[in-house]
């Protein structure tokens, strides 16, 4: 191997290490930003704090993600992409209509519980009247498979006379989301109101069984 070949190989190796280091830094920044935005919201989040959490120079944050609004949009979009991809993997339309709806409920309930940062991002975005989510084509596009799956399950459920004739697909999903979300987003105020810790795992287990029974009872009301 001559000297020029050695230089070329060395250069390629350095570039590969730089790309890997860059990818690692980007991931650290993304995770730090997710934590920051979910905790402080868009307005309260600070880029210097994100850089500090990611243990990098703030210039690296701007290099990888641009301005604060760009970073927030990316975090929000990726949070939606994550849940939409997992929903699509459920292959709901291959299931019995009732089973499909219950499976979607169980998944949504578990996902919201395991990803409090997602619940916080949704809460913050709604406080801003959908300032970013309504402008994101990516978020709208990624929701298409879910919309189609819910509409398909509702249509088949009606045809099989398993579901109420007036069941609306949008209302059904909103109900599923609400039953999976409200006890999390309002856990502390409800705990104070009833003198019971709604953040305990035992309560959330019984809550999940309750909402599953509620949805199944409603869906089977016409059968």
Which key phrases capture this entry?
single chain, 223 residues, mainly alpha, Arc Repressor Mutant, subunit A, Tetracycline Repressor, domain 2, 2 domains, 79% helix, globular
In the residues, how many domains can be counted? 2
> SSE string, helix = H, strand = E?
HHHHHHHHHHH
Task: Tell me about the largest β-sheet.
Answer: none
Q: How much strand?
A: under 5%
Number of strands: 0
CATH superfamily of the largest domain: Tetracycline Repressor, domain 2
Structural class: mainly alpha
Helix content: over 70%
CATH fold node name of the largest domain:
Tetracycline Repressor, domain 2
Mean pLDDT: 90
**CATH arch. level architecture of the largest domain:** Orthogonal Bundle
Shape: globular
What is the C-alpha radius of gyration, as a whole number of Å? Answer: 22 Å
In quaternary terms, these chains amount to: single chain
CATH class call of the largest domain: Mainly Alpha
Helix tally?
11
Low-confidence stretches: 6-22
Gap between N and C termini: 78 Å
């Amino acid at each position: 191997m001559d000297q020029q070949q050695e230089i070329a190989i060395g250069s390629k190796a350095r570039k590969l290490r730089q790309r890997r280091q860059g990818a690692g830094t980007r991931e650290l920044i993304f995770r730090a930003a997710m934590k920051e935005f979910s905790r402080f919201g868009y307005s309260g989040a600070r880029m210097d704090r994100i850089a500090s959490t990611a243990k990098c120079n703030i210039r690296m944050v701007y290099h990888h993600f641009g301005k604060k609004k760009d970073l927030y949009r990316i975090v929000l979009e990726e949070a939606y992409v994550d849940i939409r991809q997992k929903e699509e993997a459920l292959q709901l339309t291959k299931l019995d209509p009732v089973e499909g709806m219950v499976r979607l409920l169980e998944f949504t309930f578990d996902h919201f519980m395991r990803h409090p940062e997602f619940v916080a991002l949704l809460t913050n975005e709604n406080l801003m009247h959908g300032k970013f989510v309504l402008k994101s084509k990516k978020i709208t596009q990624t929701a298409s498979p879910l919309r189609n799956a819910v509409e398909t399950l509702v249509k088949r459920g009606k045809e099989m006379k398993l579901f109420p004739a007036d069941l609306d697909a949008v209302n059904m999903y909103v109900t599923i989301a609400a039953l999976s979300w409200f006890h999390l987003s309002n856990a502390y105020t409800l705990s104070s109101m009833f003198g019971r810790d709604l953040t305990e795992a035992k309560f959330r287990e019984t809550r999940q069984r309750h909402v599953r029974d509620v949805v199944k009872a409603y869906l089977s009301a016409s059968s």
